[in-house]
Design goal:
CATH superfamily of the largest domain: Alanine racemase
Strand content: 25-35%
Low-confidence stretches: 1-5, 165-173
CATH topology of the largest domain: TIM Barrel
Mean pLDDT: 93
Oligomer: single chain
CATH architecture of the largest domain: Alpha-Beta Barrel
Shape: globular
Largest sheet: 9 strands, mixed
Radius of gyration: 23 Å
Length: 430
């Protein structure tokens, strides 16, 4: 595909940014902006690298669907060999539509309803990750009422220090987190599971957050999981066959941020679980799709206010929430080569909020209105977290495969915004 590879799947030819063998400008001309564009080659490449690094271990890769739940993206990962890690009945429905079998799906999530549990049992998921003693009791109740036995794993909160390279909102393994069963109560919870007639305890689970750049923190958490495995077996449970170690492999969004030490993670897991006689599961989300996507947006206006300079784009916080919500960095660059000198600007969107921005005090070319921009590394938690705030239709999504591209999600219309609403409600008497 020529010279100048930037990240896998994206490169420049004659100064123009391409996705695989398709110029991004051509997609924008055909579909408009804002539009998410994903490289299937980049997704497959990330999956292959992770699978290769973990190859010596008995491990299955289950993609965390919440990162990017587009059906076409899910199909790419399903065809690559991934299982699915889901957190709602909606994600379960998406995974099944994309071709995942029930036995290839793990159902996680801290607030499952009775209906969620019934959907999980209907689908025959591999197991349900239970996050509290009350949820465990409900799963047993629902399964027993059906004459069924629910396969469950206990999600443990190991109470480890902040291991994430980023925002507090992506930390899930510290004391005080809503996620998981406190490690101090985990053994008792396992005994409870062993006593319930509608439950088979088949696994243990732990996920301590995203952007985990410190192997020491990951190793410390997994040591606690291995200790619990030994304790549960000592209590007479011989049905635990799965150990789900979570995900959190970091992605470097900016210079200086940590990269995933995949071989290091494999060494830790091999040392701790190589002799445990269990099947391991890892749950990457961001690592597989973040760098496989860009958000295309067009500069609408240039303006100044006091000493601040602004680029007003047609993509805002309703399209990409991460900069506003997590103070996250995304590289932004013109899609076509430009000659303008650099300037310092805030790249903001059209949403009626002061917190609506894609970048603050960013040094980038001083481009005029009409310039097409690419917001890089936007494949994870981009469209999946988008909304209709300010009654703005959500963006289109496009998947590229070699020299072919196709619309994976049609841009919403104004009629789509109100399709489920009623001017005159269906009134009912109290």
């Amino acid at each position: 595909m020529g010279q100048g590879v930037l990240t896998e799947g994206f490169w420049r030819q004659s100064g123009a940014l391409w996705c695989e063998d398709v110029p991004l400008a051509a997609i924008a001309d055909a579909v408009g902006t804002p539009t998410y564009v994903y490289s299937s080659a980049a997704i497959r490449g990330a999956y292959a690298r992770l699978a290769q690094a973990l190859q010596p271990l008995p491990v299955r890769i289950h993609y965390a669907v919440k990162a990017n739940s587009n059906l076409a993206v899910l199909r790419v990962l399903q065809e690559a060999g991934a299982g699915a890690d889901i957190v709602s009945a909606g994600e379960l429905h998406r995974a099944r539509l994309a071709g995942f079998r029930g036995e290839d799906i793990v159902f996680a999530g801290v607030g499952k309803t009775r209906t969620d549990i019934e959907h999980a049992l209907d689908a025959g998921v591999l197991f349900i990750n239970v996050e509290s003693e009350q949820e465990l009791a409900l799963v047993g109740e629902v399964a027993a009422a059906r004459g069924d036995v629910a396969r469950v794993a206990l999600r443990i909160n190991p109470n480890v220090d902040d291991a994430t390279a980023g925002h507090a909102y992506i930390t899930t393994g510290e004391a005080g987190s809503k996620f998981g069963i406190d490690v101090a109560r985990a053994r008792d919870a396992a005994r409870q599971a062993m006593a319930l007639p509608g439950v088979a305890l088949v696994g243990l689970d732990m996920h301590i957050g995203s952007q985990i750049g410190e192997l020491a923190a990951f190793e410390g958490a997994q040591r606690r999981l291995r200790t619990l495995l030994d304790e549960v077996r000592a209590d007479g449970c011989d049905t635990v066959r799965w150990v789900d170690v979570g995900g959190g492999f970091p992605v470097a969004y900016a210079d200086g941020e940590p990269h995933a030490d995949l071989e290091g993670y494999a060494r830790v897991l091999g040392a701790l679980f190589g002799d445990a006689g269990v099947q391991l599961i890892v749950e990457p989300g961001r690592y597989l799709v973040a760098q496989a996507g860009v958000l295309l947006t067009t500069v609408l206006y240039r303006k100044t206010s006091g000493r601040k300079a602004f680029m007003v784009a047609d993509a805002g916080m309703n399209d990409l929430l991460r900069p506003s919500h997590y103070e996250a960095h995304h590289a932004i660059e013109p899609v076509l080569a430009v000659t303008q000198p650099s300037t310092t600007v805030d790249v903001v969107g059209p949403v009626c909020e002061s917190g609506d921005f894609l970048a603050v005090d960013r040094t980038m070319p001083d481009v005029p209105p009409g310039t097409l921009l690419a917001v890089r590394d936007a494949g994870a938690y981009g469209f999946a977290m988008s909304s209709n705030y300010n009654s703005r239709p959500r963006a289109a999504e496009v998947l590229v495969q070699g020299s072919q591209w196709g619309v994976a999600t049609v841009r919403e219309s104004l009629d789509d915004l109100v399709r489920l609403e009623r001017v005159a409600p269906d009134w009912r008497s109290a």
